[in-house]
Amino acid sequence: MRSLLRSLGFLAVLVIFSLLAACIELTEPTIADESGPSNESNSDSEATLRLGHVFAEDDPIHKSTVMIADLAKEYSDGELQIDVYSNSQLGGERELVEGVQMGIVDIGLAANAPVTNFIPSLVYWDFPYLVDSIEHMERIENDESIMGALQTDFENNNLVNLGIQYGGFRQITNSVRPIETLDDFSGINIRLLESEVMIESFENIPGTRTSNMAFSELYSGLQQGVVNAQENPLNSIYSMKFFEVQDYLSLTNHFFTTRYYLMNADRFDLLSEKQQEALVRATEEVMELHKEELFAEEAQLLEILEEEGMEINEVSDEFVDEFRTQMKETVYPRFYDVVGNGDEEVGQKLIEEIEALR
């Protein structure tokens, strides 16, 4: 990360997370029937929802998700109970999205890459070096035209996006060598998310192989040498203890991770207006806090990862320029028609609008 934020913010927010998490007692969930939801749609009803994600319970993402459940219960005066399932208990991210669409899972937290298996037009969020700073991402999120197109894509697939979670910039770890030039990818077998654009991006780098495996299996895959590299935001590299099975961390910032709290639109409509407002309000508020915590912690995480024995390097501007130029020439154009839902000019225009906000 070119400009790492103060570590004091990380410590302060972690105290907040710890205090709030200590007040939360998760109850045994009511298992949803595959035939559909049973919640009544009136102001006197109580609703219990299942929310699934793939992260460990000591990950800030889990803690912020539990905060959403806590606040939604508070804002709904106890009418809305959300039971949180961590560690892929309800499935990997692709299974979570599919479960939400089918109404089997009430809410699923999923990164953009697995979502593109169901909504291909969202592949642009996975374009390498499209988002180049947090400030840039915030301008994108505040753009009514871009966000309007995003929401339309979700609505057309019977999904409600409760909120966008900033996942952070993705960095590369490996057990071969530091990544300082594109030539250093020679001999690298890197695990990537299940995203066609991500896979094609790295396969366009000579000497690089790509693999896909479930996030829950990645540690053992690295440990056993099935793959020798992976890429994730710093918080995931730390919480999943990848530093135990990887020697090198290269700060590349090559992809920016966006995640979504997705809910089946029909199930959302079954909630009372009070419950809906409580859920949306809780998600939006916690996402702001999560964003502050995520980037405030990075300096601290780098110190910890270095203490754990990782060799850390930051790539040069020349590396970024070469990577971005190569991808804009070979990868971006191939997906313009997908981004534009079949219209290449529409897709290219959307990418240009995003780039113009830098």
UniProtKB/TrEMBL annotation:
| Family according to the record | Belongs to the bacterial solute-binding protein 7 family.
Lineage, top-rank taxon, reads Bacteria
Which Gene3D superfamilies does the annotation name?
Bacterial extracellular solute-binding protein, family 7
Which keywords has UniProt assigned to this entry?
Answer: Signal, Transport
**Protein name from the UniProt record:** TRAP transporter substrate-binding protein
Q: Which PROSITE patterns match?
A: PROKAR_LIPOPROTEIN (PS51257)
Q: List, alphabetically, the Pfam families matched.
A: DctP (PF03480)
